[in-house]
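Input chain follows. Return structure tokens only.
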Amino acid sequence: MVGFLKKLMPREDKFFDMFEAHAVKSLSAAMSLAAIFENNKTIGQHCAAVMKTEDEADHIATQVNEGLRKSFITPFDRGDIGKLINDMDDAVDQMNKTAKTILLYEVKSFEPNMKIIADEAVHMAKLLTEALPLLRNIGNNAARLHTLCGQMMAIEDESDRHHENGLKALIKGKGKKDAMAFIIFQELYGHLEKVADKLEDVARTIDGIVIEHV
């Protein structure tokens, strides 16, 4: 009976393995998203890459949630595990929504601030891939985790500014002549800013976990 129960209990490091695997997918999706804004000849290719990666990330998130239901022992609070993976998955989902919007409206050219926000999402995702392995030993890594989360939040603040500046430029430029273009680009800016927002949510969740355990 004891042996059977042990089989039902995933090792603690399995959750960390899945967190880290999902973070890699987040970075991959963010890099594909940023690549969309670099070359209008490869927009479809990179949109498809975002969508494929989002599907793979969903699979990992499902594994984590299934592991929570089956596990008697977890590395930290169940609610925190669920919130962390769901916040991470929401960020990749938002990248997917951004790519789908580009395909839906057949956007072929972009505003400069859009590329900046997409590049900032890549930076945030890179910091996330550094942060997740450190959760294996929160006590020893608390200071570095706090720093990384702070950096992600600071980048999101920069994204807010680029979002605002982009909308202002849009109103004064393309939006003056083409109302439909303004509506489409405004929606696209909104999706991009939400990518940064969702990644900031992940940072805040990680920071909260650190606070609880130190």
